[in-house]
Description:
- With 429 residues, the chain is α/β, with parallel strands linked by helices.
- The chain has 16 helices and 14 strands.
Amino acid sequence: MSDYAAVQDYLFSLKARGPKFGIDRMRGFAAALRHPEKAVPVIHVAGTNGKGSVSAMLEAILRAGGLRTGLYTSPHLVRLGERVQVDRRQLTPDEIVTYTAELRPVAERVSAEAPEDHPSFFEFMTAMAFLQFARQKCDVAVIEVGMGGRLDATNIVNPEVAVITSIGLDHCEFLGDTLAKIAAEKAGIIKPGRPVVIGRLPAEAEAVIRDIAAERGAPVHAVREGFGDDLARCPLTNLAGDYQRWNAATALLVTEVLPPNLRPPTEVAKVGMQQVDWPGRWQKFIVGQRRVILDASHNAEGATVLDENLAKLRAQGGRPPVIVTGVLGLARAQALLPVIARHAREIHLVVPHQERACSHETLRGILAPAFAGPVAPATVEAIFPSPGRCTLGDQGETIVVTGSIYLIGEVLARLEPGRGEGEGRLQDF
């Protein structure tokens, strides 16, 4: 497979087969690759929200401490290579081509007797990450769970620390319809004797996680125990929003329970916390003399944070913002749109280029009882026709783009063309 277009097609063919859960298949794949997941110490990060931000914070802290870092996250915003980074250098198309040529025959060999057990797209990318981190001789890798924890492909690692950032109702069709069930799935990353760091969790969820940790002899370190409920005690970070300070507290607590050879001094950790690169989380741009804010708030827990941020934005004065939104899944739309309706002057509905995206009609139907202002269908291309142009609102106004992370990725590709052409068909799962 010598060209990147052919590799994209192959990877898309894997994605089109749908997600697969369970770790036995990934264990077999890793064994055939001589266990690259064991070559580098790992911090394993799960959570309904915040796991990406905490992963990015941990990477920045560890790199500030002089360590060579691996970072594996999903989905990507624009380019596939964003998922696998060493010292924040993304995997290049040429590297993806080379790894695919290496991994494809191994995948076919391990599934020869049971083709239905061929590694999935996510498992393929996970294997790429493990190989890259091992071959680049990373000192430590921060591995974000794809979904859940117990049955996620990343759960073949034996981490130095397991992290559970938050628990909320999301992906309920896969993880369960109660906080307790979802907590049990995410607690599946806890390994015997290895420390666990937990963020500010609902009592029901925390009880489940503590029970599972106790069964496995895993000591629990909780943000509430270390920082209480006073935001002022949490470390500062360059990422905007009160919730990011709670994420920063989680990340700092993780560093405090790492083995001594990986543990940065507190002052170094605080410096790293001011150098975090994590786009699409209340990220601000000036576009056509308008302030544009991108914020991925895609589920019920995220909607609560969005409500707080929009309220603060309005309290700063001026007109209510123009809001652009697009959502994947009816339950997420039902949580998000009433929040948007409380704060927007006008709303523009976009359908992200993903099969699970809600239609204009579905979104408008949810808004109808709650919002009396203008509502219009739109496209990302029409709103942001070129990197320096925004066609909504007036000069000096604020435009908030929120909802699906895939929508945020489409907008980023328009605002920052240097990121490269978007790879949307390889985003979902």
